[in-house]
Amino acid sequence: MPKPADPTPDFFGYADLLGDAERAELAAIRDHLEQEIKPLADAAWARAEFPFEAVEKIAAINPAGYTYPEFGDGRERGALFSGFLTLELNRVDPSLGVFCGVHTGLAMGSIHGGGSDEQRERWLPDMAAMRTIGAFALTEPEGGSDVAGGMRTTARREGDTWVLDGAKRWIGNGTFADLVVVWARDTADGHVKGFVVPKDTPGFTATKIEGKIALRTVQNADITLDGVRVPEADRLQRIDGFRDTAAILARTRGGVAWQALAVAVRAYELARAYAVDRTQFGRPIGAFQLVQDLLVKMLGNVTAMFGMTVRLAQLTEAGRGTAEQAALAKAFTTARMRECVAWARELFGGNGIVLEYEIAKFFADAEALYSFEGTREMNTLIVGKAVTGHSAFV
């Protein structure tokens, strides 16, 4: 029997754009994730519980420090390295990848981009070390895609205190985060503002959303804010409108594209390994034309996704990345990811619906990635406006 070719999903060698030291560092991170975190993650997904024992092990790879080196170990890695790091973490477990994305990208990103120097120094060092965990509360029960104009959570100023009232939904990390960045509309000027709310603040209640079929480890919460009092010192001082919020989301959408790539990569890896090992009709199923067709279609998607995410990282690092490019990357990669996990599940046959073969978890998780950080339709309208000059938003 001929020896299988190189199984790497990075068929065009995009990782070669990194330096030798960076590739070695990523290889060490992959080993750590596989050995120390994957067993915890797989068991937690099946139970729909969060593996708190994994937080210290995740902190050991310093994901926040790579993004904000001034609050980490001080070593600058760059957007491309950060993208490949996101790939490695989500390739092992998308739920823990989302946990890190919410904490590092959304919560820390809000404070880093919207906070004063004093606020950055007060919160970010402990968050970078994962001694303090953050969440990001934007989506509401009646406001998802239209939350920019339809936000119902209000902030009313009383002297040096703000009073928050309203509700939020689908808040990742929301059941246990130490700090939650809450977005609310100022009743005086109508502008959206950001507030950092500790979890033990009176009037703040977080309830776990049960019964999810995707990203089961992520502890999404329904949050109610009933007269929550926040000092002016905890209002993000450089946020004064939804445009500032949207800028944070634009930065994190590039990370979601890498998450989608990671899920497609893992689906391909699992499908290819199964095709080589699984025997039917006296030969490996990978020797059949229809199976090879599925694998090649998956590999084509993965390769296209690599090209888009890598280029977006390069543009971002050069200061030339745009919100419209991030929107296109998110919309495109999540759609191609969805195709890949469906083809992979098809290749596994009946075995594809049980957790023993792992692909079922990625098949389910893909549905959440496809929808959050802006649906495909919303991101399409962002790009459509850029290419036509006409807004099609309602």
Automatic annotation (TrEMBL):
The UniProt entry's GO biological process terms, in alphabetical order, are:
fatty acid beta-oxidation
Locate the Acyl-CoA dehydrogenase/oxidase N-terminal domain: which residues?
Answer: 22-130
Per UniProt, the keywords (alphabetical) are: FAD, Flavoprotein, Oxidoreductase
Against InterPro entries, the record matches this protein to: ACX4-like (IPR045008), Acyl-CoA_DH_CS (IPR006089), Acyl-CoA_Oxase/DH_mid-dom (IPR006091), Acyl-CoA_Oxase/DH_mid-dom_sf (IPR046373), AcylCo_DH-like_C (IPR036250), AcylCo_DH/oxidase_C (IPR009075), AcylCoA_DH/ox_N (IPR013786), AcylCoA_DH/ox_N_sf (IPR037069)
- What is its cofactor? FAD
Q: Which Pfam families match?
A: Acyl-CoA_dh_1 (PF00441), Acyl-CoA_dh_M (PF02770), Acyl-CoA_dh_N (PF02771)
Start and end residues of each Acyl-CoA oxidase/dehydrogenase middle domain: 135-228
Which parts of the sequence belong to the Acyl-CoA dehydrogenase/oxidase C-terminal domain? 240-387
Output the SUPFAM superfamilies linked to this UniProt entry.
Acyl-CoA dehydrogenase C-terminal domain-like, Acyl-CoA dehydrogenase NM domain-like
GO MF, one annotated term: flavin adenine dinucleotide binding
Q: What protein family is recorded?
A: Belongs to the acyl-CoA dehydrogenase family.
Please give the name of this protein: Acyl-CoA dehydrogenase
Which species? Streptomyces mobaraensis
